[in-house]
Structure formats: structure tokens, C-alpha cells
Amino acid sequence: MTRISVVIPAKNEAENIVALVEGIDRALALLAPFEIIVVDDCSTDNSVAVLQARATTMPHLRIVRHDRSGGQSAAVQSGVKSATAPVICTLDGDGQNPPEELPKLVAPILNDTTGRIGLVAGQRVGRQDTWSKKWASKFANGLRGWILQDGTRDTGCGLKAFQRQAFLDLPYFDHMHRYLPALFNRDGWQVAHVDVSHRPRGAGRSNYSNIQRALVGIVDLAGVAWLLRRRKKARVLPDTVQGDAK
Predict the structure, then answer these.
(1) Which residue range(s) make up the domain with 24?
(2) Domain-located, residue 159
(3) What residues does the Glycosyltransferase 2-like domain cover (predicted)?
(4) Helix crossing, 17-27 with 102-110: angle to 10°?
(5) pLDDT digit string (tens) for 226-235?
């Protein structure tokens, strides 16, 4: 049985993606069996071609393709739905999240004896981004943390590990990947945090600008705050269900 599914949302990352999946392959060698799922978000370069060529000698590499560009959260959800393992790891397709961090990231869930850790969130140290991107991220994280009280300083980090079914139980909306700690907390899961390294983008450029993130972030933040206030609070007591289940 596959232990871990690694989900990579990617768009126009032909110059980075093969080196990334090969790095994941080396990093998780001691945690086999695992699978790598790259979700191509309607790339216009030759990402799919280079992945298909690599998959001929890497049978645990799978490719999921969108019929249109849906964004990072849509790609993550498509990958998680296609996954076969109970534990999911995610990282960005641009190569800035070092795959060597994956064993450290997934360890809290694999070693959890309580079954209550739903999410392990990576938090970047020594970020290798432009000054404007780091400033915008710091401001957004500060505002989000103040409003949602999610106890996480860096929700934008692509390195995460979580229980597959717990993720699928979350309410889906575009850009939800930036609010996973608050959403997992909402459903009663414990959230662990791990400091992770960061490296410069190898090639290509980001698919999103600071202005784009800011515009959608205002609406999303209000929506998540509403979801937290309207969560279901009642729970069924154990061993109280009576009658035949049909």
C-alpha cells in the first residue's frame, strides 16, 4: 500500500519539474512506497511532454491534467482526489521548496499516536524571494493571523503534509490553500509547524503577482472568517448511535 502521495501543482514549469520529481524520489527513498502526482494546470509549454518522458522510467510518477487553468487550490484538490495514500505532501512546482524537507515534514503525522494531527505546515526561513514579495507576504500573513488566530506565521509555504480524508472534508473554494491551518483547526484537528528552508527559483517566472494575491486575498479572508464563525459545533457522542444501519 502506498504510504505517501506527493502532490505538485504546476503550470509552465517544464524547466524545473523533472529535477523536482527526481529530488523527491531521492528524498523519500526510505519512506517507500510513495507516489508523485503532478497536476498540470493547463500549461502552454512542454511540461506534459517532459513529464511523460520521465514517467516511462519512473512508474510511481503520475500526471493529472486540467482541461483549463483553475489555479493552485484546484490543482491541489485534483491531486488529492487522485491520490491513493492516506497521507499527502504538497510542494510548489517551481522548485523553491526543497524536496529534502519532505521527510521532516511528514514525520509528525507518521509518528502521531493520537491520530489528532491533521496538518503539518511548513514555515519558510531564509526566504529567497524579492523584497517586494517578502514584504507583501509578511503583511498578508500578519493580517490573516490577527483575524483568524490560526497560529501560523507563513501559510503561503507550499510545503505541507496532511491527512487525505481530513483535507477532502474541508469546504472547497479557490485559494483555500492559503488558509489550511485555520480550516483544519475549524474541523478540530491539531496543526503542527515545521521550519523549512527555501531556495531561489531555478527558471521561469511566477504565475501570480503581488497585486493579484492582494485582490483575491481580501475577499478570501472575509469568507474564511465567516466559515470559522459558522462551523458546526455539535458532535455525536461515541457509542450513542442505536438501531440498524441500512
Answers:
(1) 4-229
(2) yes
(3) 5-167
(4) 50
(5) 788 777 777 6
| Cell numbers placing 176 | 483555500
Question: Which cell goes with 208?
Answer: 501570480
Give backbone dihedrals phi and psi of 218, rounded to 5 degrees, phi first.
-60, -45
Which pLDDT tens digit goes with each residue over 2-22? 999 999 999 999 999 999 999
To the nearest whole number, what is the mean pLDDT of the chain?
A: 87
| Identity of the amino acid at 244 | D
Edge-to-edge strands, sheet with 4-10: 61-65, 34-40, 4-10, 87-90, 160-163, 117-124, 190-196
Question: Based on the structure, what is the number of domains in the chain?
Answer: 1
C-alpha radius of gyration, the chain, whole number: 18
Residue 63 lies in a domain: yes
CA–CA dist 224, 42 (Å, integer): 27
pTM: 0.82
- The Cβ of residue 208 has, within 10 Å, a number of other Cβ atoms equal to 11
Low-confidence ranges of the chain (pLDDT < 70): 126-146, 202-218, 235, 241-246
